[in-house]
Amino acid sequence: MNEERSIFSFLVEGARRVFGLYPPLPLRIHLELTNICNFSCPMCQRKDFALPEREMSLEVFHRALAWFSSLSSLREVQLFGWGEPLSHPHLMEIISAIKRRGLYLGVTTNGSLLKGRMADGLLASGIDEIVVSMEGIGEGEFGHPSGRVVAGNVSAFLKARGRSGAPRVTVRATLHRGGEDRLLELVRFAKEHGVDTVNITRLDVRFKPDLRRPSPAEERTILKRVQMELAGSGTELACTYIGRGKGLRRMLFRAFKSLLHRGGRDCPKIFDYLYITVDGEVSPCCALPRYIVGDIESATAEGIWRGRNLAEFRRRQREICGPCDVTSVKQRTPPHSPLA
Fold it and tell me: SS3 of 76, please?
């Protein structure tokens, strides 16, 4: 019965995504605890946004917690933004406060601080998911530095987690042209060490046209190789372009993906979530930290979700977002992207 309800909910959500019918209220919240980072990664837009560097104060956090906890629709909260959340001095207090509300909670990290007391604290915190951004398990030109160090931290964390399976561990990587072997090495590492999910996304080249992305055909070939590498393992591949899950869910996604989000005209990411910045301002997407549709001080979550500012953004999203296709089902090759 639960499986039948799950499939029914999946089909209902799929129908809403096909016709561009946004949920009555947001299902997910991304909370930016800091925009300060100890890494300076070549593909990251953090410096391009030129945001004043700061951490979210506890005062702003508690206002945000009360703000989004009022949402009966809320499924999950992710500590995610343009900085390294594990560096926040009150991280454990923040995790504890969110978990007391009974919410699913994840955190995205570069993995450099995932060790020692921090790792022990996360294992004991009740957090549901750790997402580690990695571009490889060695050093090189792509993505994050200190790949070997981070791989060691992830391996030790998974060993300490043991058979409990909690929290879930996801490794997230981006697709670089010329980086296929490096990506497959990371995928094998994930499979061999018991990582739960490998999540693969595209590069956002709006600010960095020198970054080289695979062509659509190359992208499909790489993802097929990743699928083959993970076949029969306990590690799941999650990717907007091919779906996630197994069996009927993935089959249905493949059958109808060209119709989703009004035939690809709308972005999947903004369908069901809001992004709260370190200052308590609200944006429709983390990739638009200066496009503000409201704030937690002067408007309710429901008011922003159903309000004029967000409606205007949805109407003009392709104009506002430009060539960004990081989560789109189909790749939109930016005119300045060096894919030739």
Answer: strand
